[in-house]
Write a structure and sequence with these properties.
This protein starts with a strand and ends with a helix. Helix content is about 55%, strand content about 5%. It is globular and about 45 Å long. Keywords: Nucleus.
Length: about 130
């Protein structure tokens, strides 16, 4: 909970209450963060940087930068783009769920927003990209 103008604002990712500072934020998925860190020209040996790098290396789902661009492009297609928030789309890319039911269990805000068939189609496209990366 965070105080906001005298009112306690409760944050809850399951209902997409992420706080006012994230209202219009662009969400990157882990593979995009890895690309940015790899492209960094400055050597950075801070503990936070190293922990972040270790994290993205461990949880990176898409190892080919072209595939990362394709996944992002798929997120910008309709109808998925107009139905889901950037946060939900980034979570789907990070988790790489195989089934719509699994995605809805892990991302509760999806439950009443998108039908299983549309979600499954998006998941299948993402999984196909993951399978064929080199």
């Amino acid at each position: 909970m965070k105080p906001h103008r005298g009112v306690i604002e409760e944050e809850d990712a399951s209902t997409l209450k992420l706080g006012s500072e994230f209202q219009d934020a662009h969400c990157l998925f882990i593979s995009e963060v890895k690309i940015l860190l790899d492209a960094s020209q400055r050597p950075n040996t801070s503990e936070v940087y190293q922990k972040t790098l270790n994290y993205v290396n461990q949880f990176n789902r898409f190892t080919n930068p072209e595939v990362v661009r394709e996944v992002r492009a798929g997120m910008n297609e309709e109808p998925i783009h107009s139905i889901l928030t950037p946060f939900e789309l980034a979570q789907l890319a990070n988790l790489c769920c195989e089934e719509a039911e699994e995605a809805k269990a892990l991302i509760p805000s999806l439950a009443n927003k998108i039908d299983d068939e549309s979600l499954q189609n998006f998941l299948n496209q993402t999984l196909d990209l993951k399978k064929f990366q080199s």
